[in-house]
Amino acid sequence: MKPEEGSISSRVQRLAKYRFLKKQSELLLNADDLDAMWVCLRENCVIDDATGAEKMNYEDFCHIATVCTEQIGQKCKRFFSPSNFMKFEKDDSGRIAILPFYLYVMRTVSLTQARIDMSELDEDSDGFLQPHEMEAYIRGLIPNLAQLRDMPTQFVQMYCRIAARKFFFFCDPHRRGKACIKKVLLSNCLQELMELHQESEEEVTDTEQAENWFSLTSAQRICDIFLALDKDQNGTLSKQELKEYADGTLTEIFIERVFDEHVRRSKVGGGNSREMDFESFLDFVLALENKDTPEGLTYLFRCLDLNGRGFLTTADIHTLFRDVHQKWIEGGNYELCIEDVRDEIWDMVKPADPLRISLQDLLSCKQGGTIASMLIDVRGFWAHDNRENLLQEEEEQVEEA
User: Fold this and answer.
1) Which domains does the chain possess?
2) Could you tell me which residue ranges the EF-hand domain spans (predicted)?
């Protein structure tokens, strides 16, 4: 039972938590410790004659452990266990490269520090973060991330809101408004965010920045898109406004289904109005930009499942693609047969039940994202229809580079 807020029990519990986390933080290697370990590794390793790589055998490993413990202290000792040495790939002489080992130490320290920082923000001490707690964690990282530290002050709050949403999209599958800290630590999201620390902005291409959800470029792009769509500037998007997303290439039936499945009834604009708020828009964009992930495909499948039965029939595919076909013809493309496309999709999926396509079928066939694109976006179908030409163009660009 949780102690009452402000009670002696509550204050004692909070103090105990603070002291525990402080002690755990003191046991971590700091930046100077890590630098000292790297120097120690390099000074006591051997150079591989064939590759020039810096390596160490188990005897070197034990010697380095002794030197590091003398110079840094007992807190580095746990990294030099026999089991850790066995984790790394060995050459014919039984040696491991020092760089992967050092990167492992850095990542372990980084994740442990993140765990401590998140636990400090976890007001309920239940192992989950609420949106405002996740935003506070991200806000605390900004000064230490090379590509974000010069962010305009007035954009920080909006950035944290956008960045936090990706964690909830991937780490809160049941949409409870609480992201599991363990899932956050193991997710690719945290790695993507930390990448902004490893590289200076000058070394990152515009494409790479746009593809990383956590980059400042990406956050500003998403914010600009929402503002451009919000014609009446009421802070939410109507169906008509959302139809203009991606140059209007998404089908009307898909937009309708997005509102049916993923948009809460709005308090703005009267009793029965339903408009998409900014958080729902972020989920929408995340789903479209991550169609090949289980989370993105799950979001889209709910929209494709027209009757909420947990599977798609040939009739569903026909209905969904009819809108794509209309946009296809309006775009001046050649005539095509909807039944042929439907049969092609069935061949791509090869469902367990020949009469139904389930979400699991889409996930198992490894082409679920492509199939979803074909059914909701005329541009997605065009990309599939022209995949051979696009592949050839990509190969030519690589050869030229």
Assistant:
1) 31-108 (no CATH), 122-226 (1.10.238.220), 237-392 (1.10.238.10)
2) 109-144, 217-252, 292-327
